[in-house]
Amino acid sequence: MEKEMSSAVPDGKLQGQDGAQGFEAAQFMEFLGKVEKLKSVPRHCVTADGVQENVAGHSWRAALMAYLMKNELEEVDIDKVIRMCLIHDIGEAVTGDIPTFEKNEIHEQAERQAVDALLGILPLPLCGEWKELFAEMEALESREAKVYKAIDKLEAVIQHNESDIRTWLPLEYELQQTYAAQNVSGFPFLEKLQEEAVARTREKIAACGEESGTALTQEKDSWRMQRDAVELVRKKLSVKRTDRQEQKRSRQKERAQQKQSAKEQRQQERQKKRQERETVRAERMAEVKTLLRLAEFVMLVVFVFLAIDQAGLYGFLFVWLFAAAMAVCAALVLLGILRSIAKKRSGIIFLAAIAGILVCTAWFIFLVSSQGLGFGPVPN
Hints:
Elements: H1 2-5, E1 7-8, E2 13-15, E3 21-24, H2 25-35, E4 42-46, E5 52-54, H3 55-68, H4 78-87, H5 92-95, H6 105-119, H7 124-139, H8 143-162, H9 172-178, H10 188-206, H11 209-310, H12 314-341, H13 347-369
Antiparallel strand pairs: 1-2, 2-3, 4-5
């Protein structure tokens, strides 16, 4: 048998007869040390002698059951089923055993992660083989996977029948009679085993006597009340959670509306400022156009003045030109006042009027003070 398994080689590794590389010795020991925990991981059951069952014992008897059925299930690869039964609970060496009526998706995810970590210790050929087995077991589509799952559950039912009924939980009186029913369907021998296990369960319950039966009924009723109370609490928590989620969505919607409102308000403010700038620009353009017209008028007057000056009428026209310039300045002041009353911009017009008055005044002073310096006609 030792020759069939492996032979030692000088580098400390184990090598099969076909020459394929197997475990390193340290790697082999590491894996055994990890799965050794299964001998100490308790399950939710006791043996007939009142000893707490462990995961290793359950896996061993499940594999033994599969081996004993090899002649009853000829259409099934029983060797593969045995391998499945041997390794199906190795993840519990890390996570511990969780009773089926308490296990949820979080527990199953943790167990899958534990299995992946343990398989990572194995050499690649064996690691790949075990990963394929676990994938097939989880899919429950092949006949071998279905037989393994049925045996796994049947072994638990049989072990409970062998234990003291006082160790049962109230829910297990019903669970014992239905636990493996769906899994054995389609396999006649497994169906017979399940029927026999259920019959023994009912005999065990009936053997407790009327007094024990009454106590068990009361205990089951108490358990159902506790279960209903737990379910009610769960529903209340679910309602509260739903209300919190609804309040959260409502707050998020309100914040989104506030952000949208603030965004629209900022856009309106920008639009208003843009319109104000355009209005100011239009009013300033209107002022500039008015000044340009006045400038054209002044230039025309200046040209007329120059033409008359060439005819020797400088002194006479100066008075009228000066009066015209001052009249223009006065008209600008009046125009600015009228625009201010109409609440229109008139700053440029007022500046132009003041500048015109200052220029006219300076011009008048300059011309008067320059008499006799060649500016204008000299009196006789």
